[in-house]
Write a structure and sequence with these properties.
This protein has 324 residues and is an alpha/beta fold. Helix content is 31%, strand content 18%. The chain has two domains: 150 residues, 3-Layer(aba) Sandwich (Rossmann fold); 126 residues, Nitrogenase molybdenum iron protein domain (Rossmann fold, 3-Layer(aba) Sandwich), CATH 3.40.50.1980. The protein is globular. Keywords: Lipoprotein, Signal.
Length: 324
């Protein structure tokens, strides 16, 4: 799990990409595409694009789904690294895109796709030691974007999600699609908020993984905001990172009412439940004593287009009486 939780390092401002250089002056210069040139600052990297990328590669599921939600599958030259199946609404579009690797592609496999842009979901997508660093890509004339959950200045919220989708829409020349998506997302979240009005929050402990310690959701990631909007209170909101380790003694002391299990990988939900239920040190924790578990797939809990529906899904588990 450490690959997806890497703390982003400081990134120096990159020179403008050769592929994004200003058009030549004079009467023969091509007319810029509508909305371009477009300059965006993303995770410390400033990029100016003269036109939308045409051969992008996405690495990590949630950024792939952002592209598919905006109808940009024809702008993708490849994709990589799923945590689970893509949403059914995007399955046909996803199947039209070449899969470069089950996990991260090698530098050689990435460059073989001839990308003009790489969009990564986690900092590990841009592993400099593997030759995929953002500065290395820039030297090859390849633009890049990192999902902003991993370079935010403070706690991440749905406002950051709206910004992510808006900036991706601008980058690929479809700002109208991004605006429609954010309008729909706002409406969905408002409807959930209305149903939960006047209900007391339920205390929630996220169990991602771990044995000697509990790997859990902290207060800086979108998962914390998701829990809050679903009518919960993250008992480790004071953990100053998106994810981190907590001692089991802390779990006991904070007495969560519900355990939220993140479903992914080779360890099943039932195995995670059994690990918690069989631990005698946890027997008096209210959530364990009452066997109150909620479940979300990992891909629901990161900064991507699943968040509005995931808030509704979690709210139904935390407050079943208020479910639609």
């Amino acid at each position: 799990m450490s690959w997806r939780r890497t703390t982003p390092s400081a990134l120096a401002l990159l020179p403008l990409l050769a592929a994004c250089a200003a058009p030549a002056a004079g009467p023969t210069a091509a007319k810029p595409a509508p909305g371009f040139p477009y300059t965006v600052v993303n995770c410390g990297v400033t990029t100016t694009l003269q036109a939308p990328p045409r051969r992008a590669v996405t690495m990590n599921q949630h950024v792939t789904e952002v592209m598919l939600a905006l109808g940009l599958e024809k702008s993708l030259a490849g994709t990589a690294y799923l945590d689970d199946a893509v949403l059914p609404a995007y399955a046909k579009a996803y199947d039209s895109v070449p899969v470069l690797a089950k996990e991260y592609p090698s530098r050689e496999a990435l460059l073989a796709a001839n990308p003009d842009f790489v969009y990564g979901g986690y900092t590990s997508a841009f592993d400099a030691k593997a030759g995929r660093g953002r500065d290395d890509l820039a030297k090859s004339g390849i633009g890049s974007r990192l999902n902003t959950e991993y370079c935010a200045d403070g706690p991440v919220s749905v406002d950051d999600l709206y910004r992510e989708v808006t900036e991706v829409g601008r980058t690929f020349g479809v700002p109208d699609r991004a605006e429609r998506w954010t309008d729909d997302a706002r409406a969905s979240l408002a409807a959930t908020e209305k149903r939960l009005k006047d209900l007391d929050p339920v205390s929630v402990f996220v169990y991602d993984s771990g044995d000697k310690t509990a790997f859990t959701a902290g207060g800086r990631g979108i998962g914390n905001d998701l829990i809050t909007r679903a009518g919960g209170r993250n008992v480790f909101a004071d953990l100053d990172k998106p994810f981190g380790d907590a001692a089991w003694e802390q779990v006991v002391a904070r007495e969560p009412d519900v355990v939220l299990l993140y479903d992914y990988g080779s360890t099943t939900v039932e195995q995670k439940k059994r690990r918690l239920l069989d631990d005698p040190a946890l027997k008096d924790v209210p959530a364990i004593r009452n066997r109150r578990f909620a479940v979300l797939p990992l891909s629901d809990t990161v900064l991507g287009v699943r968040v509005p529906a995931a808030v509704d899904k979690l709210a139904a588990q935390l407050h079943p009486a208020a479910a639609r």
